[in-house]
Amino acid sequence: MNSAQQVGNEARQASRSPLMRGLARTGLAARGVIYLIIGVFAVLIAFGSTNRKAESGGALQAIAEKPGGNFALWLMAAGFVGLALWRFAEAAFGQAGPDGDKPGKRLLSLGRGVFYSSLLVTTVTYALGVSSHQSSDSKSKDLTGKAMKEVPGGEWLVAIGGIILIGIAIGMAYRAAVKRKFMEKLNTAEMSPKTRKGVETLGRIGRSSRAFGLAVGGAFLAYAGFTFDPGKARGVDGTLRELRDTPAGAWLLVVVALGLMAFGVYSFCEAKWRRVTPG
Fold first, then answer.
1. pLDDT mean over 54-77
2. E strand or H helix at 138, and its extent?
């Protein structure tokens, strides 16, 4: 066995260690906390009773302001380390289960690893008290504006990107609500029939709600590209506020908010029953 193979085997073994599995489960629970807070803020926004940002930064800021919040943030950061490393391990070694070695699944794991790494950095900045958090709306508009101004054909790339996000969201919703693929990644044998049904219901509602939010954000991004106006792009908070201003009004936002809260509770179920060992 050459040195590269030895390093690869050691990395694979480390990714399967009890410590890494424990950290990943902690990260899944931390994700649940964030989505629950976002959902609560979204309900408050629906009735105009808060200026809080219904996004990860707003949730982390709320945690930081509570007694013991700093300790909670460091615990969540450790969990996001586990989630990021788990996803990067999946990108390197493949996901557990059938067809886990497919390039598409590895690329998806890589993207999730990058996402959780970004969430880790944001969490650490709040834990250190040095965050100058830029809202997801501002980030979306800044990045969209740069793409339009600095990249040839940037407007069309932005529009295509928005359409791709819509397609991804539709696929996510179909896999969650119809195919129920997420259940294949859970240790359902450890659940009672009643618990299994409850987890499945939470997953279908929560994952579909998250996909709906992504689709609406993708629609705003595509609209920004087609109208050559980066100001039309929206982040998580802006997307939720736009839902409030639709003809369906506040109640549409409440429905989506409850769905996001369902995803938060489902995340706690994943923390307990998700298989977190790479292939």
1. 92
2. helix 136-150
